[in-house]
Amino acid sequence: MIARITGKEVNAAVSITEKSLTVKASNDSLSAVTEFLDGFLESIDCPMADFVKLELVTEEIFVNIANYAYGEEEGDAEITAGFDGSTVSLTFADSGSPYNPLEKTDPDVTLSAEDRQIGGLGIFLVKKSTDDASYEYKDGKNIFTVSKKII
């Protein structure tokens, strides 16, 4: 597996830290993505409760990209993690088929699992575990960003 990590301090006055990882959009890359995120969150002393939520969010979004973005084709996924001193932002970009996960109707969690429609629970958990989520399709890329205040 090939992975590329880049990092930079975006604005020294505000002390925004940002790191990016590019991997093949494949479930085989999940461990590299998790390792990247864990290292980033450790470097900013992320509280454990938020650490666990952000790991779950990252896994859910990345696995969806790996399983659905490119169909039978291969492609890359780029994950960018940022921290501005109080809020972590995670941006996921791929060049797969345009898809806005925020348009998916939230599942009715009052129903039993047997009575609920299949699908949508993952993005529902992403929205519930973060403070903000946004999507845009720009320059041939799906760009999905979530943020969570940790301090």
Detailed description of the structure:
The protein is α+β, with helices and mostly antiparallel strands. Helix content is 30%, strand content 33%. It is built from three helices and six strands, in the order ββααββαββ. The protein has a six-stranded antiparallel sheet with strand order 1-2-3-4-6-5, covered by helices on one side. Strand 5 (132-138) and strand 6 (141-149) form a beta hairpin. The relative contact order is 0.18. Mean pLDDT is 86; it is low at 1-5 and 10-14.
Keywords:
151 residues, alpha+beta, Heat Shock Protein 90, 6-stranded antiparallel beta sheet, 6 strands, globular, disordered N terminus
Largest sheet: 6 strands, antiparallel
Under CATH at level 1, the class stands as Alpha Beta
In percent, how helical is the residue content?
25-40%
Spatial arrangement of strands, main beta sheet: 1-2-3-4-6-5
Low-confidence segments? 1-5, 10-14
Any idea what the CATH architecture is?
Answer: 2-Layer Sandwich
Say which CATH homologous superfamily is assigned.
Histidine kinase-like ATPase, C-terminal domain
Got a strand count? 6
Describe the global form. Answer: globular
* Distance separating the two termini: 35 Å
Number of domains: 1
